Amino acid sequence: MSSSYEIRMGLAMQPLRQPVVRQMARALQLPAGSHGLDAGCGLGQQTLLLAEETDPAGHVTGLDISAELLDYGQGLVEKAGLAQNISLKQGDIAAIPYDDNTFDWAWSCDCVGYAPMNQMPFLKEMKRVVKPGGFIAIAAWSSQIMLPGHPRLEARLAATSVGIAPFSYSKDPTDHFLRALGWFDRLGLPQPGAETFAGGCHAPLDKEMRTAMEALFEMRWPGAAEELSAADRAEFTRLCSPQSPDFILNAPDYYMLFTYTLFRAAKSQE
């Protein structure tokens, strides 16, 4: 996935995602003046929201492997007037370049936990750099209804290899993001919790939301048509292509919803 694609998608999707991410950031009740880590921060859009929640004395460090994303994100930070509250650093979340017990809390959104792989090395690193008494939180997109009135087609799309993201047919079910409570338990983090946050939009869509939704349709089911029957493929193309006169976003009564799920747990006092 190219950096230019990630930048384009990140910016386009922001109007849709930001209200829900803001809800999650506020639900964390970040301590005033605390110092936190945003692991896999990308453009730093979530880093900005986290910094706003830590009051003027707080600080958030955004960590990402991509220099291109961080360079673009630095511009967003400066534009927001939060350069004193945010540091963006290049680094690998599998080997976080900070000492043990550095941060009051660590967060990751749409990164740690979401890819179809063993997440324990990343979570162990997040736990390592958080101080005793601090917490770890991971969040990701967990469900959606994008084709109102077409539940059978949407169910068939959900059953494709891309539809069951973040996963693949060969993976152990316990590696799926929605089993994160078990990951925290294996890390020895007591009383992990989960909370789901909903967002959505409806017609009439303004220009920004229309752009966000078109980006979501582009991103959500790439290659899924190859796994559908001929009839379902034709219906998918008719409803989900911006070039189609029947593109579902053109419906005057269009409505969609999606959820993010937030998993978190505290690190025991030592």
Task: Describe it.
The protein has 270 residues and is of the alpha/beta class. The chain has one domain (3-266): Rossmann fold. 36% of the residues lie in helices and 23% in strands. It has helices spanning 3-27, 45-53, 67-79, 120-129, 151-158, 180-186, 207-220, 230-240, and strands spanning 35-39, 59-64, 86-90, 103-109, 130-145, 193-202, 255-266. It has a 7-stranded mixed β-sheet with strand order 3-2-1-4-5-7-6, sandwiched between helices. Helix 1 runs parallel beside helix 2. The longest helix has 25 residues, at 3-27. It is globular, with a radius of gyration of 19 Å. It starts with a helix and ends with a strand. The model has no long low-confidence stretch (mean pLDDT 94).
Give the SSE map.
Layout: H1 3-27, E1 35-39, H2 45-53, E2 59-64, H3 67-79, E3 86-90, E4 103-109, H4 120-129, E5 130-145, H5 151-158, H6 180-186, E6 193-202, H7 207-220, H8 230-240, E7 255-266
Parallel strand pairs: 1-2, 1-4, 2-3, 4-5
Antiparallel strand pairs: 5-7, 6-7
Helix pairs in contact: 1-2, 1-7
Shape: globular
- For the termini, the CA-CA separation is 41 Å
Q: Return the CATH architecture.
A: 3-Layer(aba) Sandwich
- Beta-strand proportion: 15-25%
- Classify the secondary structure makeup into a structural class: alpha/beta
User: What portion of residues is helical?
Assistant: 25-40%
Weakly predicted, low-confidence segments: none
CATH H-level homologous superfamily name: Vaccinia Virus protein VP39
Total number of helical segments? Answer: 8
Mean pLDDT: 94
Strand count = 7
